[in-house]
Amino acid sequence: MGKNRLEAFSDGVIAIIITIMVLELKVPHGENLETLSPLVPVFLSYVLSFVYVGIYWNNHHHMLHTCNKVTGPILWANMHLLFWLSIMPFATGWMGENHFAAIPSALYGFILFMSAMAYWTLQ
User: Phi, psi (5° rounding) for residue 43?
Assistant: First the structure.
């Protein structure tokens, strides 16, 4: 199989992941800057996750340029990566809403670790 289909599917999933993450940023009721202060942890977790997902998207793009054909194991390794990245919006929202508390942050770290392991299997 050619790599175009895998690349298009992965790009679509990653675009949806980023879209879901940004939807966690709720518009505050009020017109002064103080109404934004409760959103700071949520915004910071979004920025962290956006950069993280962006790095994976960029690396995925460059990695696929070195690939000539896609095999079954590559498809499954890619799905493994996309699975862990798709959980990122949940962990991002939970961590931001709970001001980087220990358990939500630990889950976030676990997802980062599992994403790295999944990406490693693609190479």
Answer: -65, -45
Q: What is the CA radius of gyration of the chain?
A: 16
123 residues of the chain, pLDDT tens digit each: 789 999 999 999 999 999 999 998 999 999 999 999 999 999 999 999 999 999 999 999 999 999 888 999 999 999 999 999 999 999 999 999 999 999 999 999 999 999 999 999 988
30: left (phi over 0), alpha (psi -120 to 50) or beta: left
Quick one: which of 68, 56, 71, 41 has its CA closest to 114? Answer: 56
State which amino acid sits at residue 103.
I
Please tell me the distance from the alpha carbon of residue 87 to that of residue 85, in angstroms, as a whole number: 5
CB atoms within 10 A of CB 42: 19
Q: Give me the residue spans of the domains in the chain.
A: 4-22+39-122
